[in-house]
Write a structure and sequence with these properties.
The chain is an alpha/beta fold and 419 residues long. The protein has twelve helices and ten strands.
Length: 419
Amino acid sequence: MTSASPPTAPTAPARPRVPLAPVLSVASFGNAGAARPRSVLDAGQARLVTSGRIALALALRELGVAAGDGVLLPAYHSLSMVPPVLWRGATPQFYRVDGAARADLADIGALCDADPRIKALVATHYFGFPQDLPALRALCDARGIALVEDCAHAFFGEFAGRPPGAWGDYAIASSMKFFPMYEGGCLVSARHALDAVQLHSAGPGFEAKVALATLEHSFAYGRLAPLRAVLAPLMGAKDWLWRRIKARRIEAGRPADAALAPGSSDSDASFDPRWLDKRSSWFARWLLARVSGARIVALRRRHYLRLQQALGALPGCRPLHATLPDGVCPWLFPLWFDDAADADAAFARVRRAGLPVVRFAETLWPGVDAARCPGSVRLSRQVLAFPCHQELDAAELDWMTARLAEVLPEVQPPEVLPA
């Protein structure tokens, strides 16, 4: 008589790799017949460059910002925002934001009073949610300073009846935060001609690097499998290709170690002025024209609301914004933790679980501390942000929301002592 085999435990589903940023897929081109939603490109004349920080440097140059001038930057900021100001020889001055990342108009006014050489104000639409643009425009007009809209988090949208970027003297944006591409940004102006901003290609090495890196990133997350099989020999030979490109640079008397793509494509905060006259790659511009904007907006809003439903009732944390207004196309889903230590613990647990997460402005520029702006310090410590982009597939979104609800730490209520 044979003994029965013990029941086999069900195999746990493989943990998916969830992309933090959009990756190219066949679905990227879906819904192409739908009307394209309004974007920063509708705000005025545009120049397509390689990153938002390059666009900021060009905006400051066009404004005539020079040595001795002051530029007002938000105290809650990406480190990449500061080097373009220093490149112009100007002094960055950091204005306060509150706990909801809203610009402090009174503090901006006080900084202008203290320094008559303030030349421009940069206003950031954090996570896709707009600042009070009519008030900022009125303040800048009254003070005689320029307004630069930082739309790096807000490529699509409609604010007070206008597309993002339409209120500023200039606007900058980061298309690679919204489109599945390796590089891309834009400089836009509703008020000034951009004829002086002349751009040209960074060369065949750059063009090849962008196309291959975009596809390689897509393949790493299981997209475009048939194309991956076709291109396998080329992807395998790319190291040889880079060596050939560098050898040709040496033959032409150019430095062989110059980067084939800007540092922004690899998420560092560096600023290299050699990219100021380089236009965005052909492949990125091709994607910008053909990837469905309607799909980007619809799915980002849908995914944001899904995360809000899954995480909004957890104790000890809440969505940074109580609602998702019409006209907002979010970059990420920001979750506010009531206690900085809980946010630190949550960040560690999320990373260990293999979940994608961003701590925007985790490191602030030296001198930006709680004395200068308590709101920015709290935001940098107490906000974790999660992807809601359009290229999350159903299985990835289901797994991510379920795992986040499991691993985010619950904050215990304070102990009630007996009377």
